[in-house]
Amino acid sequence: MKTAIVYYSKHHGNTKKLIDAIAKVGDVTPIDVTKQSEYDLDGFDLIGFASGIYYQKYSEKVLEFAENNLPNSKKVFFLYTYGIKRDSYISEIQEAAENKNAKVVGAYGCRGFDTFGPFRFVGGIAKGRPNQDDIAGAVQFFKEMTK
Question: Model pTM greater than 0.85?
Fold first, then answer.
């Protein structure tokens, strides 16, 4: 299954670690929104949107990319890394996908080392994350989706 993963992974590369592992097991084209604000996604069977969580939400760059580039009626999934666990971080990106009549097929989130905002004063939280179990979980999530 030909897959694109649109991502933003700035501070510690937490989200990129998940994408790199997934790219080793599938036909994946990573698209870094800091380098490309436009991309033709028509030829992909599955499109992922991945981001670290910044102030309890996805990166604005990923949201804008989805709003401007996601074709109608595609299968999509979400990947994210966070410092503190909350109920859900995907509401805005899910809404952007649903506005394009996308079918959401899954979401995977895990902790990631976080020194954003006030956490930098205490040396960060979730040190060592994502760890090998987190990364293996992301790979398993992807494999299940693409069976």
Answer: yes
